[in-house]
Known about the structure:
- By secondary structure, the protein is mainly beta.
- The chain is built from 1 helix and 16 strands.
Amino acid sequence: MDLKTQLDEIRKQRIKIYHILSFDLSIARVNELVTITGSYIYCLLQSGTASLVLNELEGDSIDLLKFRAIKAPFYRLFLSNAAQVGITIKLAIGVQSDWFEIDDSGASILGGVITEASSPSLFNIPCPVANTEYVQGLGECRKFMVKARGGILKVALVFGQSGTYYILLADGQSWNEDLIHPTALNLYFQSATAGMVAEIVKWL
């Protein structure tokens, strides 16, 4: 069916091509029945955990934090989640997947949803001994910046590689990474100048 024919049918029959369902995850659920039909699901969940089973309870559970887009025909859903205070999940339900489908091809690692970075943390890490590797753990983050102060800084992402495989930053130069979501990130660095400082900012 071409686009004009689709639009004519939608206009004449007033077809609703998608629904948005919201669920408060502070309420624990075990296979709660959601009676709705469609052929496409997109999960708008930025944190927390939840899962779906399509059609029959004998089916496999789908982790919505890992698999945001589901393209399959269904006539009912079963939602499960542990109690998570302050977390809400939204499901965009497409009546027909060729009429409604969210393009998440540019999405981040976190299951197809790019979230705004916030909650900055600042670190000033001294390098008192020249040509010696130092480390700063950033943990989970969505963005970071590292800047050299007082000398040339070599920055690596792998332990023991700050002297061999590194990003080289001149004094006052910075390195930025955005739209990332590692759960545990470490920066390793060293300098030929004793007493220089690595300035680091990370955002959650």
